[in-house]
Every structure is written in structure tokens, then in C-alpha cells.
Amino acid sequence: MYSLLNKYFTETLTDSEKAILFRELNDAPAWKEEFARIQNMMAISGMIYNENDERWAAAKMKELMQITRKRRARRLSVALLKYAAVAVFVSCLWIVVYQNLPKETDDTTYTHIEVPKGQAIHITLADGTETWLSSRTKLKIPRRFNTRERTVELDGEGFFSVSKNEEKPFTVKTKQYNIQVTGTEFNVFAYSESPLFKTDLIKGSVSVYNKDDKNRIVYLAPRETAYLKDGQLVKAHQATHFSQYIKNGIYSFENKSFYEIAGRLEVWYNVKINIKKPEIAYYIFSGKFRQNDSIELIMKAITETGKFKYKFISNTEIDVY
pLDDT tens across 93-108, in order? Predict the structure, then answer.
């Protein structure tokens, strides 16, 4: 079984071996459930093919089997990386996916996804909803959506293309605000460590509300955005149609303050940016960069405008002056 699974997920399985694999899976319900969970919970893409990929995948598959043997009693499920052709802007990435099993064993079982620093990933949920997650984003997904709703928990930034189901609304829970839809495309920026919060709607409709005050709901129409201003949730027109940028791991910004740009850089790259002159926070910039660019490259590009200088105090701290 281990050998057949290894070949299946590295795409080296012959037709006859595939028939044997599925026959054995049908005879082993536990393995069949595990196999289906890996396939249906998510399809992870975002790796450019290179000559070492098959060797790398085989090594990761071996690690998976070792973990499965050691922790079978705990039913630890590990999602596997799959390969796909992607836009030239997206570079190789890795992701750690693991399950946290609480005392309950049914719908309260979750899969946790964490995106490495400076990377972005694309996954497909069991209901067909697609999401593109930015650097250092965490996403908590139930093993099964219940019969009434589809709910995920986000700490970070994600672009969601939600599979339409009017009978089962889709909700993204963040630290303070929830976003609810039935089928639409929208982006959410909500890192728990950042004071910034923003939801941009591409198409469809969404409702955004504070967990502590569900009576105050902000409804968005396409090309509108909801964001925090002086601690209050407000909405405005969003001029930029940026969904393709997000899907390709590109941050595109138009007439944004350095304060907002710095806020994103801090959470994406896990750095602290000290703005030594208050006026710098209000400088306005337009442009775009890849989320897998280094923080050094990004800071250098911004400071080429001549508006300010920067200096690395350490690997995780930058002074801007």
C-alpha cells in the first residue's frame, strides 16, 4: 500500500497499479477515508517544476508514511503537495499541514494550514471553494462542513472564490470581524498581530460585521472595500481590479500610504519597521511587487523614489528615516 500511494502522489503509477490501489482502498475503509480526505480537502499548487521535484516528493511521501505509522492511533492527517504549472511570477514553496484532534471526533476535527514567510499558496476546499493565501497566513478548516453552514478561520490574508450554495452560507472568521457570503470573490486582510483590517469585494456580495456587535453590518457591492478607520468599519469604492495579481502572488497598490504598505510588509516578512519621521507614514506610493521578493529588494525599490532612507538594525528590524 505504501509503495502504491507513493507512486500515485508522485504521478508514476501505471494503469494496472492504479486499479490495484483502488481495489485495496475499497477493501480498507480507514485508508480509503484518509486517501479521500487528502484528495478532497485541498489541492495545493504553486510549485514550478524542476528536475529534483520527483525525488523531493518521494522523500516527503516517505516522511508521511513514517508519521502515519507512528501516529496512526491519533489519526494524524497530512496533506501532500501536488505539482502544477503556474504563472511565471510564482516560485517554489512548501507548506506544513497538520490536524489538531480535540476531544470531539466528528465535525470538530480541523485541518490547519500555515504559509511560510515570503510565499503564497493556492488550495481548493472540499466544497469546491478556492483560496489563495498570502505569506505567514494561517487557515483553520473543519474536516467536514456541517449541514447548515461552511465556516473557516483566517489569521492573515486570503483571496476566496466561494462555491455558490445559497442554503449553506460561507463565513470567514477573523480575530474581530466575520465575512459572510453564499458565492462570490473577495479578499480579506486580517492578521491578528496587525491593527489593519480590510475586505475587498470583486464580485457577488458580502456582509462584514464585528463579532461583538452583530447588529452593525456593512454590506459590500462589487468593487467596494470595507476597512477600519479610527476604530470603525467603513466602506469605500475600490478602484483597482486586482484578483489576478493576488492569484499570482503579487501585491498591487495604488495611492497607498507607506503606513499601510509597511503594515503589510511587517506581517508578511515578520519584521518591525520603525518610522523615525512621522511624515513618512503619510507618503503615497503606487506600484506592485511579488510576495516572494525579499524584504531587502522591496525596501530598496521603494526608497529609490528618494522620499526616505532605510537601515537594517537586525534581521527582523528596519529603521526608516
Answer: 333 333 333 333 344 5
Please report, for residues 104, 112, 198, 297, the alpha-carbon distance to residue 223 in angstroms, rounded to integers and kept in the order given.
41, 30, 13, 31
Element of type H or E holding 190: strand 185-190
The single residue listed with the C-alpha cell 461583538 is 212
E strands within 89-166? 96-100, 110-114, 121-124, 130-133, 138-142, 150-161
Could you report the per-residue pLDDT of 176-186, keeping only the tens digit for each? 999 999 889 99
The pLDDT, as a whole number, for residue 158 is 94
Residues 281 and 321: beta-carbon distance below 8 Å? no
* H helix count then E strand count, the chain: 7, 19
Are 170 and 150 in contact, with CB atoms under 8 Å apart? yes
CA end-to-end distance (rounded Å), the chain: 60
Positive or negative: CA dihedral 174, 184, 90, 50: positive
**Tens-place pLDDT, residues 246-258:** 777 788 888 889 9
Q: Which secondary-structure segment (H or E) carries 51?
A: none
Instruction: Answer whether 99's CB lies under 8 Å from 76's CB.
Output: yes
Based on the number of CB atoms within 10 Å of its own CB, is 124 exposed (0-12), middle (13-18) or buried (19 or more)? middle
Phi, psi dihedrals of residue 8, rounded to the nearest 5°: -65, -50
CATH assignment of the domain containing 285: 3.55.50.30
Q: How many independent structural domains does the chain possess?
A: 2
In whole angstroms, give the CA distance from residue 274 to residue 321: 9
| Residue 176 located in a structural domain | yes
The CA-atom distances, in angstroms, between 311 and each of 116, 215, 240, 319 are 24, 46, 32, 5
Question: Sign of torsion, CA 290 261 160 107?
Answer: positive
Q: Is 294 found in the same domain as 208?
A: no
Residue 36, domain member (yes or no): no
Residue 10 per-residue DSSP state: T
Q: Considering the entire predicted model, what is its pTM?
A: 0.65
